[in-house]
Design goal:
Elements: H1 24-28, H2 31-54, H3 61-84, H4 90-103, H5 107-139, E1 146-150, E2 153-157, E3 167-170, E4 180-184, E5 187-190, H6 192-195, E6 201-203, E7 208-209, E8 214-215, E9 220-224, H7 232-245, H8 249-279, H9 284-297, H10 301-320, H11 328-332, H12 366-376, H13 383-394
Amino acid sequence: MTQTSAPHPTHAPHAKPAAPPASFLDVLFSPKGELTGAIIAGVFLLAGFIVHTLLKQENAEWLVWVSLCVGMVYGLRAAWQAVAQWRIDIDVLMIVGAGLAAYIGHPEEGSLLLFLFTLAGALEELAMQRTRREVEALNKLMPVDAIVLRDGQWVEVDPDSLVPGEVVKVRPGERVPTDAVVTSGKTSFDQSAITGESMPRSVEEGDELYAGTINTDAPIEARVLRPVRESSLQKILNLVTQASEQREPVQRIIDRVSEPYALGVMGISFAVLMVWWLLLKRPWSDALYTSITLLIVASPCALVIATPTATLAAIARAARAGLLFKGGQAIERLSTIGAICFDKTGTLTLGRPQVYDIQPVAWSDTARLLAIAAGLEADSTHPIAAAVRDIAGKRGVKPATIGELSHVTGKGI
């Protein structure tokens, strides 16, 4: 077979335009900015507590007010977004409670409430951001360009423009742009990203290729089977994206009852205020303090914060370990599992072959046999070759020098 090398691309690869510089508000309300704000609020609140309570200083209230103001910056933004949509949710409840606590002379209580809420919100956003990064890392499995035969010439194009029936060329080290079937050539492909199998798969004419798999040996030509958006890899990426956006049942319940709960708490707090002041004839300050205390105690910080934070952190951590959860519902169901069956290579194994023993046949010198094997595999990129070289290195065996060596694509040495 005569192999035709592709000429230089007819146009430059598709480069993403540079992102505009972030504004001050973008930085301020970013997950890291919110986390920094929460830490600053916590530091000032702690400093105020130490100076006032432990050091018995009376001029420490300004530290608490600084903490309150920092927390208010993030709390007010979330509350304003809710009010702008004519909703009274838990964010509004938090701001009202913190503001009224400061109004009656207890800014430390409002500051603590906002600190906890801001910190939890920042951690949740960071967990979501980490999950998005994992999804973006998976997107790197998709090649940014493809070499296709059009009008008798090999040209470089955006993979999204490929249509079924076109012929593409995949050179060694390149990824398959979309699902295709080999029409010419023999080679091996690393399909671990799709199948989980670490051993390269030998392919020849008529064999199907998955998008995102890597050619390890020789150039081949393949006919496109389906568009990129319908490829096997794209379906996997879509599942991961859906998993990162899916809300678990507990969180959906919280979202559904958030507004009526906030309205109910505010209504009950107002009723308590009226009962204490008008019916029980308590001083206005006592009635207001009791009402605000109920408002703050009823703020469901832990319930709102714990579920999404824990779930998103679990999804992100699992993604780094190669486990893909399709949303929080799957994680919640883990508690009902009684047994697990593992199948794919790399789940319970390392995902790469290792040499554990050498049993020579008609050879008396094991070290000599290993030296020759390591010499034969010296320049190979195959996983078994790497395993042979590794065991030789561990045993201190120097690879033998091989005079004549040829490599047959798809068959080996």
